[in-house]
Amino acid sequence: MSDTENTLTCYLHPKRETTLRCNRCDRPICTKCATHTPTGYRCPECIRAQQKVFITAKWFDFPIAVGITGLISFLGSLLANLLGFFTIFLAVGAGYLSVAAVKKAINNRRSPVLYTLMPITALIASLPLLVLRGALILPIFFASGWEATGLLFSLLWYVLYSALVTSTVSYQLRN
Hints:
Distance between the termini: 53 Å
Order of helices and strands: HEEEEEEHHHHHH
Strand content: 5-15%
Number of strands: 6
Strand order of the largest sheet: 1-2
């Protein structure tokens, strides 16, 4: 047999020679297509098939996650201005509580869509009071000038709450 008969080419890139094979389906793959796993190299199709096993969410998990996350985030934003500095702790607590409550409600089912949907919901639900308060305060600030600077600082707690609750939910879902 000649060398050309023994030369393997990637099944996705027929012009690339390779010596690698997927350790699951045994197809030849080039280094660009191969994903290194703890057990060896895998082709993109085997990786995709393996990841689908871990996506267990059902259709009704998404509205449940949106409802719980939105409610907790909104209720926390109601308290944000009252607590001042302690808004930091409230936002982190609301983020942890949101993720824990959703995981319990949906029996720890997983989906990459949930990992994107929940932080977006936390952000959107925390914004109405910031927008409402900003709409009330900004005209007063622009009419009064710098004497009303204290009013602007009251918006800071809403902004801080929104940023912290969103980042906490996102961080908790990644771990």
